[in-house]
């Protein structure tokens, strides 16, 4: 009731107040056109700040289309500092009010790209007015024929986006307004008031209808609050007829709402007063005072407005002023509507139907915003006009689109025909070019590429006769050339094969020879090495921290110690300070250490050991090239999975214990069953799989016991398992490094090999000296009473040289001497072609004189010396700790036994085999310092002396049915062979230095025979004793030496000796030699 009485009082004073203040209002508030003209004049005068303020207060809705364009240009000039507008008179100005034109050089108008950039800047601004300006600028760019298609497309797209944004804000504001109305209807006054306040704070530019609706809702809230305040008691609420049951708000909330609404009414009154609407301002001030009697501002403003209204002399003038205001609002609305309709017509004329429909939509929105001012009949007509125009535009657009489609289709068909003709011409040219290219390739003997080019030509033109002819020519040429090429390659292959055969004939004295391309092979294999190897960055960091440094730390902080190590090594360090601080170690922990020429790795270990605690010691690990320092538990938690190939460690190294023996008795015993020396029954092992499993278990156990802490494996923080010869380990980085080193150490120990060379040397030295004279004579004519007198000696026969048991066969002459009655002759068999080992004497000379006195003289002289060396040197290479043998022999078959077959009257021979040659059976172990080799030697040497043949004769009684032989026994005979072997064997265990030689064993035999014979007394007489004496001397010496030379082969050492630096950096090694791959 209080609000209603206040409104009635305000209405009563409106005519008087409006009439009294109508004239001053007209003078105090200039129109929008006047403000525009004033701002332009300020801009031309160079006062940019004043022009910006004046132009910013201009209401665009009260301007015509030309004035709005003038306003936009003036605002752009204010921002850019240029003057491109002039103060031309507006519709509100008279002719005598026009300012004098300013003659200035007009700058070049902005380009469409610049206008688009300015519009984008306005669109991104938070001010909605600038966003509206951006909308207009986008429309002008869309209709600008000078703008490029890209600029117009961008303007259209951004115009649509900005409109959606603005409409989205307005839609959201209206939705909030609906929710506030719903809260007020359902009695949630506080929620409704809060939503209205939030809507005011959002800054959304609402339409007049929406703003009027907000005022109504606020008035409804105020009425509810007033009604609640007039209730007699809180316990007896007054019933509200035809209203839903609402909750009664508290007095504080009501008072707060009334004050807020009173302030809003006061602000609206001030706005109305500035616009010259004094009656409306007085009414709003009164409403503000009614809502909040303590509103001092409203109480102070109301008397001034009332006094202004009281000065009016006529209520008719006030009414006329209100009518004039309504007329101006209607004209303004109609002007805005007409402007949009004109824009729609212009857009339709330029066939921009989207912009035209958009302009019609804006015209309809203009009508909706001003429907309270426009008369209903006129509003209806204008709406119908806009609707009709919209329908006409839609129809025109449809017809235009249909025409465009038809034109596009016709143009497409014409273009298709032209494209077809052009394509045929292009294909013909392509075929010609391809055939020319094929000719060139054929001339250069590149037949495969030529055929590919011909195939392309035939694919383009399948029935091309020139292409088919050219194909046949190319095929024939290719067959001819390839035939010649194959013949040449065959000859080259035969030559290469011959060269390879000659290369294979080159002997090698080295125990191990690397291929010439071993550095390249090493680089390829190490680069592709899988498994748990460190990365290149990690290896470089490890090399850095293994440098020798000297440090002196005297109560230095841990942080400074780490910085010193970084400076001296150049490596990257990372310290997990939170983990260290958790166990009581920080950056300021003190360290004291004084070391000289110690690796940085050892220095860091000692520093961390000095600061470690028993619960969780400090440690470090190199991970991806960075030295990580933290607690053991922290680094242990950083586990990764890596795979290690251990198949080479699972290979069982057998001991070859089945070396054959040169025992002839054993050969005779095995005659019945027989066995081959090539049998490998001792090498076969049915338990290979079991041994492999045991090896895997041993390796896994070794890893768990040697790598990291035992608790890690027991608690399953680290795991290890085997799969197909691959060891899969999940553990920390440092444990992986230890596991890799452990496996490498095992491999290095297994990679040691031993090469044993045994030299069985037989040295024979023989000496023979034989000098003999035989003088015989006989006297025939001693008279009839006497027979002939003969004097003969045989000392030469007695002094015949005799060899010892070790004298080689044929070395001592065995020919007997007889009477020689031949002319004098002399020979020297020593220089005969038969050689030194001939059985003839060196010199024999005989002379005879025949008469009554017969004299026979025979002279014999031989002196010989023979020295021979026979070397048998078997080699064998085997793994460290293994037993192996080499067997080089010649097998000879012989008849060892004869069995009589009685039924067949025949002999059944038993054939056996014996072997002669050499066997080197050896087992070796390298000492721990890799300087000595302990060998267990079993060398054997066998040679054939002779095979004696023994004839056997036996009888057999055949079992036959006829009686021709009267069942008599039949004699059968056969030969049995008895071989005679010379066997040398040694069994010994010795220690020999690497590459040293040891005389393991041997034998030395010496034999000497000296014979002297002659005639007693005569053989002692000087001078003539040579005629009656003979001497012979035979000396033999035989020496057998068994020498052994072991050589230790350590693969890494051999590789480093032949290729220094290869294992450290294969890439750098190959680059230095210029042999990269």
From TrEMBL:
**SMART domains recorded:** TPR
| InterPro entries for this protein | GspD/PilQ, T2SS/T3SS_dom, TPR-like_helical_dom_sf, TPR_rpt, Type_IV_pilus_biogenesis
Biological process (GO) annotations?
A: protein secretion
Each TPR repeat occupies one of these ranges, namely: 262-295
In this chain, composition skew of type Acidic residues spans 94-103
Q: Which family does it belong to?
A: Belongs to the bacterial secretin family.
- What is this protein identified as? Bacterial type II and III secretion system protein
Q: What species was this sequence derived from?
A: Mucisphaera calidilacus
């Amino acid at each position: 009731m209080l609000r209603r009485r206040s409104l009635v009082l305000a209405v009563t004073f409106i005519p008087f107040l409006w009439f009294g203040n109508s004239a001053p209002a007209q003078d105090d508030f200039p129109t929008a056109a006047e403000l525009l003209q004033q701002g332009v004049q300020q801009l031309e005068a160079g006062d940019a700040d004043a022009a910006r303020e004046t132009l910013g207060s201009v209401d665009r809705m009260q301007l015509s289309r030309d004035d709005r364009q003038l306003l936009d240009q003036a605002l752009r000039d204010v921002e850019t500092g240029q003057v491109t507008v002039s103060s031309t008179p507006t519709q509100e100005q008279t002719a005598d009010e026009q300012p004098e034109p300013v003659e200035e050089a007009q700058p070049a108008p902005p380009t469409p790209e610049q206008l688009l950039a300015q519009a984008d800047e306005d669109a991104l601004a938070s001010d909605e007015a600038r966003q509206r300006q951006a909308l207009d600028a986008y429309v002008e760019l869309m209709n600008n024929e000078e703008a490029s298609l890209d600029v117009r497309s961008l303007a259209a797209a951004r115009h649509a986006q900005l409109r959606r944004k603005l409409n989205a804000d307005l839609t959201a504001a209206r939705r909030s307004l609906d929710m506030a109305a719903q809260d007020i209807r359902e009695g949630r006054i506080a929620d409704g008031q809060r939503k209205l306040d939030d809507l005011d704070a959002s800054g959304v530019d609402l339409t007049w209808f929406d703003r009027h609706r907000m005022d109504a809702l606020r008035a409804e809230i105020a009425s509810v609050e007033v009604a609640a305040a007039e209730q007699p008691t809180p316990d007896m609420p007054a019933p509200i007829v035809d209203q839903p049951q609402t909750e009664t708000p508290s007095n504080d909330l009501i008072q707060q709402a009334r004050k807020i609404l009173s302030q809003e009414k006061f602000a609206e009154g001030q706005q109305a007063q500035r616009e010259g609407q004094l009656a409306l301002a007085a009414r709003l001030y009164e409403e503000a005072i009614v809502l909040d009697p303590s509103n001092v501002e409203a109480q102070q403003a109301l008397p001034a407005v009332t006094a202004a209204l009281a000065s009016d002399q006529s209520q008719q003038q006030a009414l006329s002023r209100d009518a004039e205001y309504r007329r101006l609002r209607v004209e303004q609305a109609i002007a805005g509507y007409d402007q949009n309709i004109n824009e729609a017509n212009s857009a339709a004329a330029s066939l921009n139907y989207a912009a035209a429909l958009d302009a019609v939509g804006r015209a309809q929105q203009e009508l909706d915003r001003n429907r309270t001012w426009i008369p209903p009949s006129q509003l209806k007509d204008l709406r119908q006009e806009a609707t009709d125009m919209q329908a006409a535009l839609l129809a025109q657009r449809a017809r235009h689109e249909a025409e465009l489609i038809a034109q596009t289709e016709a143009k497409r068909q014409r273009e298709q025909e032209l494209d077809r003709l052009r394509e045929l011409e292009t294909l013909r040219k392509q075929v010609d070019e391809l055939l020319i290219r094929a000719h060139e390739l054929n001339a250069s003997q590149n037949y495969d590429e030529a055929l590919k080019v011909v195939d392309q030509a035939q694919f383009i033109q399948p029935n091309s006769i020139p292409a088919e002819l050219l194909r046949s020519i190319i095929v024939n040429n290719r067959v001819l050339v390839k035939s010649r090429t194959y013949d040449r390659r065959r000859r080259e292959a035969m030559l290469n094969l011959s060269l390879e055969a000659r290369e294979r004939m080159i002997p090698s004295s080295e125990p191990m020879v690397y291929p010439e391309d071993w550095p390249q092979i090493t680089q390829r294999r190490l680069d592709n090495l899988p498994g748990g190897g460190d990365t290149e960055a990690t290896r470089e960091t490890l090399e850095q921290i293994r440098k020798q440094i000297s440090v002196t730390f005297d109560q230095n902080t841990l942080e400074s110690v780490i910085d010193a190590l970084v400076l001296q090594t150049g490596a990257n360090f990372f310290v997990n300070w939170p983990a260290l601080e958790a166990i009581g170690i920080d950056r300021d922990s003190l360290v004291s250490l004084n070391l000289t020429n110690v690796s940085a790795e050892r220095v860091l270990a000692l520093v961390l050991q000095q600061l470690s605690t028993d619960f969780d010691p400090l440690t470090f690990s190199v991970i991806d090239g960075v030295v990580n320092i933290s607690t053991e538990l922290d680094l242990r938690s950083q586990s990764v999975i890596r795979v290690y190939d251990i198949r080479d460690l699972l290979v069982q190294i057998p001991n070859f214990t089945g070396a054959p023996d040169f025992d002839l008795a054993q050969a005779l015993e095995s005659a019945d069953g027989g066995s081959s020396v090539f049998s490998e029954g001792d090498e076969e092992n049915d338990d290979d799989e079991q041994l492999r499993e045991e090896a895997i278990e041993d390796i896994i156990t070794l890893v768990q016991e040697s790598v990291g802490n035992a608790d890690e494996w027991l608690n399953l923080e680290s795991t290890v398992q085997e799969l197909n010869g691959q060891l899969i380990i999940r553990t920390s980085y440092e444990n992986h490094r230890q596991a890799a080193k452990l496996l490498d150490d095992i491999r290095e120990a297994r990679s040691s090999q031993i090469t044993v060379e045994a030299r069985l040397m037989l040295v024979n030295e023989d000496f023979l000296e034989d000098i003999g004279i035989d003088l015989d004579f006989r006297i025939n004519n001693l008279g009839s009473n006497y027979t002939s007198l003969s004097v003969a000696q045989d000392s030469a026969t007695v002094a015949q040289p005799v060899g010892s048991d070790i004298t080689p066969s044929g070395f001592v002459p065995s020919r007997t001497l007889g009477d020689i009655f031949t002319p004098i002759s002399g020979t020297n068999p020593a220089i005969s072609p038969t050689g030194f080992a001939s059985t003839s004497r060196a010199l024999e000379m005989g002379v005879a004189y025949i008469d009554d006195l017969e004299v026979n003289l025979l002279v014999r002289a031989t002196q010989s010396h023979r020295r021979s060396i026979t070397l048998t040197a078997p080699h064998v290479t085997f793994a460290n700790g293994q037993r192996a043998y080499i067997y080089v022999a010649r097998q000879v078959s012989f008849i060892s036994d004869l069995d009589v077959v009685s039924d067949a009257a025949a002999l059944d021979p038993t054939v056996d085999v014996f072997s002669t040659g050499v066997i080197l059976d050896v087992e070796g172990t390298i000492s721990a310092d890799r300087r000595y080799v302990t060998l267990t030697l079993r060398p054997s040497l066998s040679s054939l002396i002779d095979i004696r043949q023994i004839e056997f004769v036996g009888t057999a009684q055949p079992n036959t049915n006829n009686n021709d032989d009267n069942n008599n026994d039949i004699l059968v005979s056969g030969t049995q062979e008895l071989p005679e072997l010379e066997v040398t064997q040694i069994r010994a265990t010795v220690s020999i230095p690497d590459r040293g030689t040891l005389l393991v064993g041997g034998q030395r035999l010496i034999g000497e025979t000296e014979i002297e014979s002659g005639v007693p007394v005569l053989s002692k007489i000087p001078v003539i004793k040579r005629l009656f004496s003979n001497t012979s001397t035979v000396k033999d010496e035989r020496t057998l030496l068994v020498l052994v030379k072991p050589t230790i082969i350590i693969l890494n050492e051999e590789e480093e000796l032949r290729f220094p630096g290869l294992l450290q950096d294969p890439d750098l090694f190959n680059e230095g030699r210029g042999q990269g791959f």
